[in-house]
Amino acid sequence: MEENFDELLLKYTAALKTLETQISILLQDFEYKNNYNPVEHIKTRIKSYDSIVKKLKKKGYSITTKNIENHVHDVIGMRIVCSFLSDVYKVVRLIENCGQIEVHQQKDYITNPKDSGYTSYHLLVYIPVNLLDGIILVEAEIQVRTIAMDFWASLEHKLSYKFQGNVPKEIKDYLYKCATDIHTLDQKMLNINKKMQEINKD
Predict the structure, then answer these.
(1) pLDDT of the residue at 2
(2) What is the pTM of this model?
(3) What b/e sequence results for 146-157 when a residue is b if at least 16 CB atoms lie within 10 Å of its CB, and e otherwise?
């Protein structure tokens, strides 16, 4: 299986490079036309073999390349972190309107947060990759969020790892309160940005 995974990994690596290039082009074009870049930073990764195996086992699937492609939708992950809440939706629209990236599923956890308080905008996309045998479509997950949302999600992930997924209720409740505070902060920062734009126009 690991031998077959190496071949699959080549496809995922090529798709990630294609995605990174396309997103970079979109943002450069946006910055040129709007005189600002809505993105603070971007992180990318390809899921490790062990993490993929763990996810398949959790879902009850055998370890095959077909099951990886069909049931592990985030082997390729891209996280786009923005300054302001409005920028998140601008970036989402850029991706939606990009002819080189096919969006096939979206989840707006900003409008509809998870029970934990988690907020972010998720897109599952297909990336066309040119190989010797022709063009193939490779799936990737893109998460778009603000700096504050990213800080919260990073802390939640560390706590979940520390407690092996069994985070005490007291900490969960406190995290949820922090999530609501972060939502309020994002709104305040958005209002500051709007006032700055109004002043610049005047």
Answers:
(1) 58
(2) 0.92
(3) bbbbbebbeebe
Instruction: Tell me the per-residue pLDDT of 99-150, one tens digit each, with 9 for 90 and over.
Output: 899 999 999 999 999 999 999 999 999 999 998 889 999 999 999 999 999 9
Residues 79/143, Cβ–Cβ less than 8 Å: yes
Distance CA 31, CA 38 (A): 8
For the record, the structure tokens of 3 come out as 């031998």
Residue ranges per structural domain of the chain: 2-201
Cβ atoms of 122 and 109 within 8 Å: the answer is yes
Catalytic residues: 141
Give percent of the chain above pLDDT 70.
Answer: 98
Fold of 2-201: Beta Polymerase; domain 2 (3.30.460)
Separation of alpha carbons 39 and 27, rounded Å? 8
User: Pick from 60, 88, 63, 59: which is nearest to 8 by CA?
Assistant: 63
